[in-house]
Amino acid sequence: MEIIQSVNNEKVKRAASLKDKKFRRYYGSFLVEGEKLAREVLASDSPINIYIEKGCEDKFSDIISSFGDKVIILSPAVFSKIASTETPQGIVVELAMKETGRLQFSGPFLVLDNIQDPGNMGTIIRTAAAVGIQEVVMINCVDPYSPKVVRSSSGTITKLDLFSLSVDELEEEVKRQNAQLFVADMNGENIFNVRDVPEVFGLVVGSEGQGVSQRLRAMTSRVLSLPMQRGVESLNASVSASVLLYELLKHKFI
């Protein structure tokens, strides 16, 4: 178990750099902060490093016992350099990004179009994991490994296969695998009347401000709607995605 007290330590500099998307991509890793999230990811994922604030050793004695060779103790001043929350909880875990090969649809999948809000992105990922979605395609979206997205996903970011593609690349895969794309729109068929759902389909979710791009709309084979009372124009992107996914996949839970 290593103890570091200098902010100029190379391991500290590396960990602190992971707050930046450029360095997350360079090193192929990201940070998970907070006791609850740390314990959740450590239950199923192997860490690169575990950073614990000095003075919290007793609190995390079980983690130190289990991952002693991966644990690095940091002085409070040094720990603050890698923490991204206002009230750090004394632990940060560094994990490797999940490696993915060529996109292969194993069942229902998600297509996220220009989702920029970290809270929405994290919540959508969390719901996708809950309903058993494995593949998530992202087109011009916020970095899913940013601290805010990771926190909003409650650590489920490690359970999915994430693909950053262009519209052209997605279109190629949809054609190659003969997959169908569904999109939500106020003028579509009522989602609660839909019965014939194929085993493999992609649900396209757009940003609240811009919706789904015209290129993607042209690729969709089915338009679905969430009925709403008059005077209500739309729902939050993550709420819409959650309702649609659970309704489309309800056969898995009945």
SSE map:
Layout: E1 2-4, H1 10-17, H2 21-27, E2 29-33, H3 35-42, E3 49-53, H4 61-66, E4 71-74, H5 76-82, E5 91-96, E6 109-113, H6 118-131, E7 135-139, H7 147-152, E8 161-164, H8 167-176, E9 180-190, E10 201-206, H9 214-219, E11 222-225, H10 237-248
Parallel strand pairs: 1-4, 3-4, 6-7, 6-10, 7-8, 9-10, 9-11
Antiparallel strand pairs: 2-5, 3-5
Helix pairs in contact: 1-5, 6-10
The value of Rg in angstroms is: 20 Å
Major sheet strand order: 8-7-6-10-9-11
CATH topology call of the largest domain? Alpha/beta knot
Please count the beta strands (DSSP E, at least 2 residues each): 11
Total of DSSP H or I helical runs spanning 4+ residues: 10
N- to C-terminal distance: 48 Å
Can you tell me the CATH architecture of the largest domain? 3-Layer(aba) Sandwich
Main pleated sheet: 6 strands, parallel
Given the helix and strand composition, which structural class is it? alpha/beta
CATH homologous superfamily title of the largest domain: SPOUT methyltransferase, trefoil knot domain
Approximate shape = elongated
Total domains: 2
**Element order: H for helix, E for strand:** EHHEHEHEHEEHEHEHEEHEH
CATH uppermost class of the largest domain: Alpha Beta
Unreliable spans are: none
Percent helix among the residues?
25-40%
Task: Tell me the fraction of residues in β-strands, as a range.
Answer: 15-25%
Mean pLDDT: 92
